[in-house]
Amino acid sequence: MFKKILIANRGEIARRVIIAAREMGISTVAIYSDPDSESLHVQEADESYSLEGIESKETYLDVDKVLDIAKKAKVEAIHPGYGFLSENAEFAKACSKAKIKFIGPSPESMKLLASKIASKELAKKAKIPIVPGFEGVLPAGKELGKLAKEIGYPLLLKAAAGGGGKGMRVVHDSKELSEMVEGAKREALAFFKDETLFIEKYIEHPKHIEVQLLGDERGNLIHLFERECSVQRRHQKMIEESPSPSLTPKLREQICEAALKIAKAAKYYSAGTAEFLLDSKGNFYFLEVNTRLQVEHPITELVTGIDLVKAQIRIAAGEKLALKQDQVTQRGHAIECRLYAEDPENNFLPAEGIAGLLHEPERPGVRIDSALKQGQPILPYYDPMLAKLIVFAEDRELAILKMKTLLQDYVLLGIRHNLDFLKHTLESKDFISGKYHTHSVAELLRTFEQRRKKLQDSFSPLAFLFSSQSPISSLSNKAQVDPLASLQGFKNV
Amino acid sequence: MFKLIQLIPPHFILDVDGKVFKGSFYRGKDFVDLHLSEGTFRIPLGEKKNRRSSNHSAEGELTSPMPGKVIKVLVKENQKVKKGEVLLILEAMKMEHKVVSPKDGVVHKIIFKENDRVSQGEELIEIN
Questions:
Q1: Which has the least CB within 10 A, A79, A106, A441, A492?
Q2: How far apart, in whole angstroms, are the C-alpha atoms of residue A363 and residue A167?
Q3: What does DSSP assign to residue A402?
Q4: Cβ pair B71, B91 in contact under 8 A
């Protein structure tokens, strides 16, 4: 087993890996940018080194800096967390060259699965369904009609050169095909100076289902069942749950088997996630494999009882997978809500501020993965995700109630965030029924804005309480201070 | 009608028209964030020079800075007053607030009398 590892990340995931390692008796090394020098992950590691810089590209993404520190600190392995260098095959190779174990999959499988085209080929070979489409130059006239019929309506036309909805058209039947193609071409040309279009099947109201994979370096590979991540905004996940309320036992088995097949074909090991889209008719389509630990991994951990980070470390240390597939079961229900620094009154644009008042409730069945510290300024340099609020209960209904209560009791003041929108979503008919999909958030935002405005107006008169005229205006924010909090940063020598 | 029941920063208990609100607050530079069971709300605060929160206007009208009750009117209409002179006293949240004259002048109109309830921003008195 490793004696010392470096965590090439920050925030809540750095804390997550640090605690897993420490619980295994492994010494931990943290790295930090200038704005992160007082962060919790720095205080909680056994050693810490400055990356000397502010922006990601000159700190957490700087391969040379990270490896220099790793060598200086004499670590045996590096855990990349998620984001940053976690899916960088070149970094994984560089670690290997420096004789430092990269806690993750092989650079070869990372490269293979990073390519959308290559991974789709892999899926095809493994006879796993992918979103039917054609990624070549679109034919014209009769040929186009034939291709469209082959793929099946409704169709989605996409600009090859760009995204953001520009040059996109949904085609419902053959009658509007040529008109839509012309329109999409015009838009693509106007926005991206390239009228090349791709065509694929349009999946209406899709659900996002992903499967957790775990494999050792001896070829043993298992799945740890699925997560549903359909509550998304601008392709950013907001709420995830496990098990998925949308799967029948048969569908669950099929999707998990499909995930295993693709991972096996890529000779995958360590932790990874295979993502799929599920349509309203029970058909699923492979999207891609993420070759890293995911943000939402806690809900799988709670439902299966398996510590994924410790498993990753053991696998990297050369150990055999401790569990067989038939020993993995799902028990209970877990939900995760992601707290983001976004302004609900300003189109959810990223917000800046301070963790002026923070209260993270502790109670049975609640897990909060966060790196927030009261008084800490929250700057826009990195990810806008502030914390992960996770609950675990005996069933879905109880989990929803537990999450609602947690969202009501969680306090973070001094920065704008999406907590109230998370609560609004959790209370919605669509979410409670389990019938939500990846486009549900748009409608939820509308009803949220209406409700929100009413409430905001009713509380505005309270401003006088805190205005300069008010007798209490001179009162400070002094909350009850925990005397031990000031001792943070000191370690037993 | 607001009644402050308890205030131990950062917690407060307010009675607003009979409904009790329990929550916490964080005072920022030009805003205050409130946490209530209904959610988290940000209330922008005006500066001292801001017309909205100041209870003096250019025309010499004075508005109430907060909802409360007029407990004493110290002047009469057509009375000459000096800048800084106390015109009336408001009571809100068990505290008294003196409304003073912004300039030398004559009391033109007294809009509220003793024991009247006023809302925030209501015009109280006009000085010419």
A1: A492
A2: 49
A3: H
A4: yes
Q: How far apart are CA A56 and CA B121, in angstroms?
A: 49
* Alpha carbons A57 and A84: distance in angstroms, whole number: 9
Q: What is the pLDDT of residues A126-135, one digit of tens each?
A: 999 999 888 7
Higher pLDDT, B18 or A385: A385
Q: What angle do CA A104, A108, A111 make, to 5 degrees?
A: 90
Q: According to the model, what pLDDT value does residue A27 have? A: 98
Given a contact cutoff of 8 angstroms between Cβ atoms, the answer to whether B54 and B63 are in contact is: no
Closest CB to A414 among B28, B37, B95: B28
Residues B66, A469: C-beta atoms closer than 8 Å: yes
B65 touches A at CB < 8 Å: yes
Q: Determine the Cα–Cα distance for residues A85 and A400; give it in Å rounded to an integer.
A: 34
Q: Which helix (H) or strand (E) holds B5?
A: strand B2-8
Contact B2 A416 (CB under 8 A): no
Of residues A480 and B98, more confidence is placed in B98
Cross-strand bridge partners of residue A213: A223, A272
pTM of the predicted protein model: 0.81
> Model confidence over A338-359: pLDDT tens digits?
999 998 778 888 899 999 999 9
